[in-house]
Amino acid sequence: MLEERAYWLAWSKIERIGPILLRRLQQRFGTLAMAWAASGNDLASVEGIGRRLVETVVQERSRIHPEQLLEQHTAKNPHFWTPADADYPRLLLEIPNPPCVLYYRGQVQPQESQGIAPMVGIVGTREPTDYGKHWTRKISTALARHGFTVVSGMAAGIDTEAHRGCLEAGGRTLAVLGTGVDVVYPPRNQTLYEQIQQQGLVLSEYPAGTKPDRAHFPQRNRIVAGLCRAILVMEAPTKSGALITAHQANDYCRDVYVLPGRLDDEQSQGCLGLINKGAQIIPREEGQLMEMLGAIPKLDPVEQLSLFSPSPAPDLPSELAQVLQAIATQPTPFDIIVQEAGLTTGVVSGALLQLELEGLVIQLPGMIYRRC
Prior knowledge:
Elements: H1 2-12, H2 19-29, H3 32-36, H4 40-44, H5 51-61, H6 66-76, E1 80-81, E2 102-106, H7 110-113, E3 119-123, H8 130-145, E4 149-152, H9 158-168, E5 173-176, H10 190-199, E6 201-204, H11 216-227, E7 230-233, H12 241-251, E8 255-258, H13 269-276, E9 280-281, H14 286-294, H15 318-326, E10 332-333, H16 334-341, H17 345-357, E11 361-364, E12 368-371
Helix pairs in contact: 1-6, 8-9, 9-10, 11-12, 15-16, 15-17
């Protein structure tokens, strides 16, 4: 996979080529190495890649040597994963737009990458009330004592309280940054950042040296949601970034729990809105919350989950087998399935329904399908 790793990195350096287009390129050409060598006409046949983008790709790849880029990049960023790597977090491969490159610092645990270790995200406002701080500390401490890994964004407020509560209880925590993994933001969290590296992991999709940028933080929220089996929203006003994480978690079929607040409390209005839309209320009793989180189905251990190795199709009629084979190991959009299967839209739609009934695939929001 070393070669493919180099091509994930190389493609990520081309402007306007993101995770969704990379998935389409991989599905069209088999590997990103093959896509790198494809002609302009072949690239233009991929949905979402128009002539202007083809010109950009052809121009940029003439200046990039993937193996050399990998060597140079690794010298500055020694610790990172791509979807071609066995340690790339399994649950992130389930979301529509997993990071092309994921940098890390700290203590790696294979159980987390495989999706076996239970991870719960805690998010909320940067300006919490005493009520929000109290319950965040209480719940993160309880999660740590029961063996859950707490995931948050190391921002001021609820994030900071979640990380600290977990660390003080001797638990493991992951911080997903909107900066490079070597840049501490806010700066006053320097000590917290160092503690997280000792007892957990710091993650980012941005290379070393990347400074804070307002656009990066909503993007990192999808990683928090994607890594976790459940998201707890502690306090959030109506325009809080925590609500983005909650909505993304819902789109990814994760459980969303909300700390209820007073009707006249501005910091709780976003939480109350989530409850109105069907989010579950965090129970007052610790044991009840642990029981609810413990009821989330566990993932089976796998030796390796890769974007490049669809599992063999079972013994099925030819059209069903074609459609199942067109679905990669990560969630796949309907139009890509039609293209890869080489069948009509109606036939693919009927086949997907049959595969759902047989428990071989499930439909995610946005006409996206995933193998079971």
